[in-house]
Amino acid sequence: MTLETGHLSPYISFTRHQWSELRAAVPMTLTEHDLVQLRGIHDELSLDEVRDIYLPLSRLLNLYVKARQRRSKVIEQFLGTEPAHVPYVISIAGSVAVGKSTTARILQALLDRWPEHPKVELVTTDGFLYPNAELDARGMMKKKGFPQSYDMRRLVNFVADIKAGAKSVSAPVYSHHIYDIVPDAEKRVEQPDILILEGLNVLQSGMDYPHDPHHVFVSDFVDFAIYVDADEHLLKQWYVERFLRFRKGAFADPTCYFHHYAALSEEESVNIAGQIWDEINYPNLKTNILPTRERASLILTKGGAHAVEQVKLRK
Ligand SMILES: Nc1ncnc2c1ncn2[C@@H]1O[C@H](COP(=O)(O)OP(=O)(O)O)[C@@H](O)[C@H]1O
Ligand SMILES: CC(C)(COP(=O)(O)O)[C@@H](O)C(=O)NCCC(=O)O
């Protein structure tokens, strides 16, 4: 463990080995039930990864949630108010294809195994993208994922309502299959104990939205923010590999937005995916996502095969 660049860095930095040892304080074996849950998330997910990286993280989060609950009790005692149900909000940021949604699902499965069995809800911010018709009308179809493609005010209101203890809050739903917002669909969030909010924009603030300046940010309602990081060459590789996997599966369905790509050769598909990466996702990463990394409470840096090599925890 090192205090990065001395006392000036806001982070404590851990190698993979140092971090993995932090689970030793509590025996953390996985039960058959856990294994079945985790296998369902991803067939290539390595259990070493779960044990070394995500179990210590789940232990840390458990401590943070309990500390937060104690703090809320103090405030209630001071004010003489009734206990309110305030969900703990964890955000997960990072590039497209870095593994945000996989990380979110692993954490959801691990948090679920705590003795208290908290209700853990997962929401992705893509539901707050403007529908294609609107993006198209504004000439922004090639800007999906950029700040101006989101209804950020609606997202901030959504998280604020949840944090205010609202009984039921609804979010719009995005489908990667139709590559658009699903008309009339909604995701209802009803007072979870923990909300995991995943999306490339969750660490962005008002200054990232000069076209729509706002003064209350998603981060104002987030208790613990995680940024998943990786070298840009790996990110492109993972993006292309995911595209190729979709080409073999989902693209075959005529209702899929990318159905016309199903007939492409492997080489052509690699080129198309590379082009989408170079023209949309990479510029977005450089301009709008990477600059928010150091706002996170925790940074997970992955190497090849999605193995986390370094962990940085805000002091
Ligand atoms: N821990 C992991 N182990 C193996 N593969 C992973 C892991 N995390 C992500 N992947 C793979 O990397 C690609 C991107 O992951 P995904 O969670 O879809 O990213 P994001 O939500 O950031 O766009 C997917 O093909 C996914 O299967
Ligand atoms: C939908 C996304 C913007 C990610 O949204 P998020 O859930 O991170 O808010 C991204 O996956 C995407 O579709 N980008 C556009 C370019 C592309 O097709 O990859």
UniProtKB/TrEMBL annotation:
<feature type="domain" description="Phosphoribulokinase/uridine kinase">
    <location>
        <begin position="89"/>
        <end position="242"/>
    </location>
</feature>
<keyword id="KW-0418">Kinase</keyword>
<keyword id="KW-0173">Coenzyme A biosynthesis</keyword>
<keyword id="KW-0808">Transferase</keyword>
<dbReference type="InterPro" id="IPR004566">
    <property type="entry name" value="PanK"/>
</dbReference>
<comment type="pathway">
    <text>Cofactor biosynthesis; coenzyme A biosynthesis; CoA from (R)-pantothenate: step 1/5.</text>
</comment>
<feature type="binding site">
    <location>
        <begin position="94"/>
        <end position="101"/>
    </location>
    <ligand>
        <name>ATP</name>
    </ligand>
</feature>
<dbReference type="GO" id="GO:0004594">
    <property type="term" value="F:pantothenate kinase activity"/>
</dbReference>
<comment type="similarity">
    <text>Belongs to the prokaryotic pantothenate kinase family.</text>
</comment>
<keyword id="KW-0963">Cytoplasm</keyword>
<dbReference type="InterPro" id="IPR006083">
    <property type="entry name" value="PRK/URK"/>
</dbReference>
<dbReference type="Pfam" id="PF00485">
    <property type="entry name" value="PRK"/>
</dbReference>
<protein>
    <recommendedName>
        <fullName>Pantothenate kinase</fullName>
        <ecNumber>2.7.1.33</ecNumber>
    </recommendedName>
</protein>
<dbReference type="InterPro" id="IPR027417">
    <property type="entry name" value="P-loop_NTPase"/>
</dbReference>
<keyword id="KW-0547">Nucleotide-binding</keyword>
<keyword id="KW-0067">ATP-binding</keyword>
